[in-house]
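User: Here's a chain of 196 residues. Predict its fold as C-alpha cells.
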Amino acid sequence: MPSSWSPSLRFELQFTGDNINLWGEKLNAVLTHADYAVAGWLTKPLTGNTTLSTANAADDEARAAMVKFTGGAGPFTVTIPPVSKSYLVWNATAGPVTLTTGAGATVTVDPGDIVWALTDGGAVKTPGYGGASIKDWVSGVAWSYNAGALPAQAGNAGKVVKTDGTNASWQALSTADLGDYASAVKGLALAFAIAL
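Assistant: Prediction complete.
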C-alpha cells in the first residue's frame, strides 16, 4: 500500500514496510515541513488576489506558521486551504488583505496590522470575546463612546482621556485627579521606613 498524506499540513505518512532504505530522507523531509509549519516565515508579495500554494511532500506557502504580505494598495483577497490551521499574519501592504477559505466567515487585516488568524477548514476567525474579534471588542466595548476612536489627538499633547461616564475628552491632569496620590506616597514611604 502506498504512503498517504496528513490532511492539514500535507506530511507524508509512511505505510509499514514502504520506502525501504529511503525512510531517513522521507523523515527528514517531514521534519523540515513540520519545522516550517511551527516556526516558518513566508514573505508573500501581492499584486492581486492569490491562493497560497499547497503540495504533498514538497515545499508550499500554506504550510508556513507566519505570513507577511507585502505589495501595493489592494484590496487583496488571499485564499488559504480549507483545512484546520492557524497563521500569524502581518499585513505590510498599503491596503486591506482579506483571508478566506472560499467558504464561511473571512478575516480582513488592515494595513500595518498583525493578527492571529485561524480556520476550522471553513470559517476564518481571529481570537476574540463574545463572538467579536479583539479589535472589534475593544472598539465596541472599551471605546464605545466614540465609535471605537479616541477623541482627536492633535493639539492635546500632555493631556489624558477623561470621561464623566458618558462623554470622553482630552483634559489636563489637575490636583483633584491626584487627590489620593499624596496619601498613597506617604503610605509607601512609611512602609519603606519600617522595612528598613
